[in-house]
Amino acid sequence: MSHSPESSDASKPERAAQWAQQRRREIARTPFVVLTVKASGIHPATSRIVALHAVVLTKDGEVTEEFYSVINSGSDPGPQHLHGFTRAEVAEGKRFSQILKALGKLIDGRTLILNNLPMTWGFVVAEARRAMAQAARANRSRNRQRSRRQRVGHVPKPHKIVDTLASAYQQGLVLEDNRIRTIAQTLHLDVEPAHATIKRAQLSAREVIREETDIVTRIFFVLDAMGKMASISPNNLGSDRFGLQRSQVYNQAIATEPAFKNPGVYTPKTGLVQGMEVVIAPEVTVHPDALIRKIVAAQLVYAPKTTRRSSVVVCNQRDDLRGKAMHAVRKGIPLLSDKEFLRLVKNTAPGTPVEEA
């Protein structure tokens, strides 16, 4: 029996509705996806993904699907100690454009769980955009030759992204470093130490990346049971100059030109003064975006790194300092806790406008 064009057209939205309903049921049953990325460097703008591993989880943490791929970007994979894969293994990998559709299907609509969101998500977004741009260029050539168009997929669209590293800090954990195993050990999970071990050296790179995904999964469920998780919509993220995915609040603050002259280092006598440069260390329990909003609203200047121009560093830790706080103390720059800063910022004193300086 033949179908009229009208009935055929009518079936398209019906099929789309059925697919959407099926997808919603699938995501409701398996709402989480945990992703681990290995790369040739630390900046997505200049480095490339070497391998990625992901698992899809039920609400109870049962793995229902696994995804793994080595990626051959056609560029230098960087030193093996960064990611564990040999040049021969990378050479046999797939192009990112070949796995983007599958990755999108895995991630779209789900809660994406990462450790160190800016870098991990930054690499996914950067690689997806490269693949899409390359396909667009190829399609323009195909249009001229009337060849079939290439469709590689899209930047994955998670419902939201959870950062286990940021969650650990915001729940007040005192970490020796940012490594996955350090977080796990701080939470008293049974894992090997973060430093290199003979046992881990005997594992293949694939086994190591799978192990790390499993550790991030365990960290997520422990932290989620302990308190509030640091999460954000991908719509509220954007690339910084290194390709790291930062919040729009962060990016806008970085792009804001100072309206007041920097009056120098904070002291209890001067208090906070408009134009002072404020750095936020990771060791805070107030969400960094909330602190940045207060900085911008008070006409202070937000800075991502501690330099000799810094006026104060917001950090709750006072012992075993590292990173931004350690550099601050070495440079004679004072530390304020997040609660102290929020109290003091309400009474920020007027500064000297830049045009008068």
TrEMBL record:
<keyword id="KW-0269">Exonuclease</keyword>
<keyword id="KW-0378">Hydrolase</keyword>
<dbReference type="InterPro" id="IPR012337">
    <property type="entry name" value="RNaseH-like_sf"/>
</dbReference>
<keyword id="KW-0540">Nuclease</keyword>
<protein>
    <submittedName>
        <fullName>DNA polymerase III epsilon subunit-like 3'-5' exonuclease</fullName>
        <ecNumber>2.7.7.7</ecNumber>
    </submittedName>
</protein>
<dbReference type="GO" id="GO:0003887">
    <property type="term" value="F:DNA-directed DNA polymerase activity"/>
</dbReference>
<feature type="region of interest" description="Disordered">
    <location>
        <begin position="1"/>
        <end position="22"/>
    </location>
</feature>
<keyword id="KW-0808">Transferase</keyword>
<dbReference type="GO" id="GO:0004527">
    <property type="term" value="F:exonuclease activity"/>
</dbReference>
<keyword id="KW-0548">Nucleotidyltransferase</keyword>
<dbReference type="GO" id="GO:0003676">
    <property type="term" value="F:nucleic acid binding"/>
</dbReference>
<dbReference type="InterPro" id="IPR036397">
    <property type="entry name" value="RNaseH_sf"/>
</dbReference>
